[in-house]
Amino acid sequence: MAGAQLARRPLSILRNCLSNSTSARRSPLYLDFADSQCDFGVFRRRFSAEVPASEHTNLIKQLREMTSSPIMDVKAALIDCNWDIEAAQTELRKRGKVLASKKSARTAAEGLLALAQNETKAAVIELNCETDFVARNDIFQYLASTLANLALSVENPPASAAGFSSVGPEYLVDLKVNLDHPKLSGETTVQNAITEVAAIMGENVRFRRGFVMSTPNGIVSTYLHACPRPGLGRFAGVLSLQAEDQISSSEALQRVGSELAMHVVASKPLFLTRELVSPEAMESEREILRSQVISSVILLTISAYVDCGRWTMMNSSFKDELAYGAESTGKSQLAIEKMVEGRLRKYVEEVVLMEQKFVVNDSINVKLLLGGQPSLHIMSECHKIHPHTILDDLLTVLDTLSKEVGSSVKIGSFLRIEVGEGIQREGTSSVSEPVAQAA
């Protein structure tokens, strides 16, 4: 009985193949491998006599140029679609979206920042991928620039207390975008565009965040570092300079604004002014510095005993008293507090923008730059002539920036972004995402 069933098995398969044929003119004994879907195995191939074999290579090349997909995927799609290039392109997009959804959980810590701006407004977005190889791809870079321009076009985004607006995925993914790239064209949503690029690249592509900064009376200055092309980079500084009255000279404002944006990227400030540093942050830093000072005092004391050969003679109780007695006496405590306050002042100078040394010329800080340094060239020449009195002469010899511009000038807000900051990579601990502060 089992042998009879096995013998009838090929005949039933052949009968099913013939019954599924779509052409009425075919011979009943003819099996069309182009349209049949037989159960001979998991892998199915379709062959057609309509497209000559000599054209197969040309079709593979055309579809590869159209989609940038791997050559084996291109060939498989063409075979499955009977060498119909349009159907194969659609099939590749379907497969790519499935693969992109599977890779969406993978860490994407590389990528680019894209910047777009006009006279009074600037937008910067972060588009992530898994490797810097994809970040150098023209399709990925085109998508990043497109998203930056879309963020710039958003009307009345919700403003934050920091002085800039967040236009993250929740605001942009459902918006329509018109793509005009040889391998990425047509009108679609932002989310579909990201998914399609992820399918082409074969990596997880993620739109992480976006920010918009504007000023009603002044300028927005920007700076990008590590730029593969204009408008793209790995580090970005955005800063607004505000003038109280109508500006009479925007050239000076633009010059100093560009230098300050570069300063923001290089010096990594966390706060705009000393007053914006919260008491909790100051107290937390004070406790950290106090522990560091006490540890250094103990080490110096131990080192002194070791150098004179007396450390091995001390018993364990004396060593414990030494470890915990550095801050027990009033004299030691007073010295420790003075050291802590000195280090705290240095900390403020490092993290507060207005207190930082200006990176273009470290003989002045940013506060002095806005109040008494209109021309870096003049200051440099003055430094050559009077190297020891440059800071005193700046306020008396040089005109202030506000006088040069024709109005009182101040920094409205600033923003510093770095690709991948705050993303936990494999083998590293989680780090909170830094937030820029503003006036």
Textual characterization of the structure:
The strands form three sheets. Strands 3-6-2-1-8 form a five-stranded antiparallel beta sheet. Helices cover 46% and strands 16% of the residues. Helix 3 packs across helix 4 (85-103). It contains 16 helices and ten strands. The chain is elongated and about 95 Å long.
Strand and helix layout:
Elements: H1 2-19, H2 56-67, H3 71-80, H4 85-103, E1 110-117, E2 121-129, H5 132-135, H6 138-152, E3 165-166, H7 169-172, E4 176-181, E5 184-189, H8 190-201, E6 206-214, E7 218-225, E8 232-233, E9 235-243, H9 250-267, H10 279-307, H11 316-324, H12 330-351, H13 366-372, H14 376-385, H15 390-397, H16 401-405, E10 409-418
Antiparallel strand pairs: 1-2, 1-8, 2-6, 3-6, 4-5, 7-9, 9-10
Short description:
This protein is an alpha+beta fold and 439 residues long.
**Class per helix and strand makeup:** alpha+beta
The termini sit apart by 89 Å
Instruction: State the major sheet.
Output: 5 strands, antiparallel
Could you say which overall geometry the principal axes of the C-alpha atoms support? elongated
Q: Roughly what fraction of the amino acids lie in strands?
A: 15-25%
Name some characteristics of this structure:
439 residues, alpha+beta, five-stranded antiparallel sheet, three-stranded antiparallel sheet, 16 helices, 16% strand, elongated
